[in-house]
């Protein structure tokens, strides 16, 4: 197999809570992650040697800084392969959005390259390799709807994928993830005596196949300071939908609707706003990566 095309799906977090700050500076989280149909397209082509990357967005690094490059190098080394790979990335997942675009691309490279090599590694082994590069990569490999722990790499519970009509929108502003964590550290004293919220309501509605509710994202508490226009967008989407929430550490916001028509209507309304850099309707997906051909 010399060429493979894959869809790398974005993620949203219907629930995201920080539970503790570790001695190494990383934060432990409790989160429900969900794959959505917004995706990058990753094309892998075997090469005689080396790893090369092309992308249709100039801001995407095409050298060893790219997550896709890092995971490809580690997989090739792990299995002792002597050849290389060319990676072409067509970006559709917005950057600096909290939707795991780089991690999704890395997951697609791991799944695709492993398939091209005859699947020498199991899914668990791919996830472990991916976790050494980025905490969101294991989820992006597995996909669907999963409650995760640790720094995001640990599977706590696999959940059914709820049928959802979702609108994702993003302002042009971005949020530095380290700045977001620093803001919350200052607010909660480094989380040393913090009592985290639990996703009880969200889990109940998902498992009982009710209308999903119980959204929560602790990073919204940093919006007033770091991204005030995103706070306005979130409030606006909350009025248009059944519920809206920040994606990850931001700055995309997703909103849930009762039907696709209402989601499309909201999209058409938002598209007239030139301060937005991204608006799209999507749905929940059962996979993190799909092989196209």
Task: Label the CATH architecture of the largest domain.
Answer: 2-Layer Sandwich
Basic shape: globular
DSSP, total strands = 12
Order of helices and strands: EEEHEHHHEEEHHEHHEEHEE
**What is the third-level CATH name, the topology of the largest domain?**
Ribosomal Protein S5, domain 2
Determine the strand fraction and express it as a percent band.
25-35%
CATH class descriptor name of the largest domain: Alpha Beta
What ranges have pLDDT less than 50 throughout 5 or more consecutive residues?
none
Q: Describe the sheet with the most strands.
A: 8 strands, mixed
Secondary structural class? alpha+beta
Tally the structural domains. Answer: 2
Rounded mean pLDDT score: 96
Helix content: 25-40%
Radius of gyration: 19 Å
Word description of this protein:
This protein is an alpha+beta fold. It has two domains: 3-160, Ribosomal Protein S5, domain 2 (2-Layer Sandwich); 165-283, Alpha-Beta Plaits (2-Layer Sandwich), CATH 3.30.70.890. It is 31% helix and 32% strand. The chain is built from nine helices and twelve strands. The protein has helices spanning 67-79, 101-116, 123-131, 137-142, 177-187, 200-207, 223-226, 228-240, 260-270; strands at 3-21, 27-47, 51-55, 84-90, 145-149, 154-159, 165-171, 216-217, 243-246, 252-257, 276-283, 289-291. The strands form two sheets. Strands 1, 2, 3, 4, 5, 6, 8 and 12 form an eight-stranded mixed beta sheet that branches. Strands 9-10-7-11 form a four-stranded antiparallel beta sheet, covered by helices on one side. The longest helix is centred in the middle third of the chain and has 16 residues, at 101-116. The protein is globular, with a radius of gyration of 19 Å.
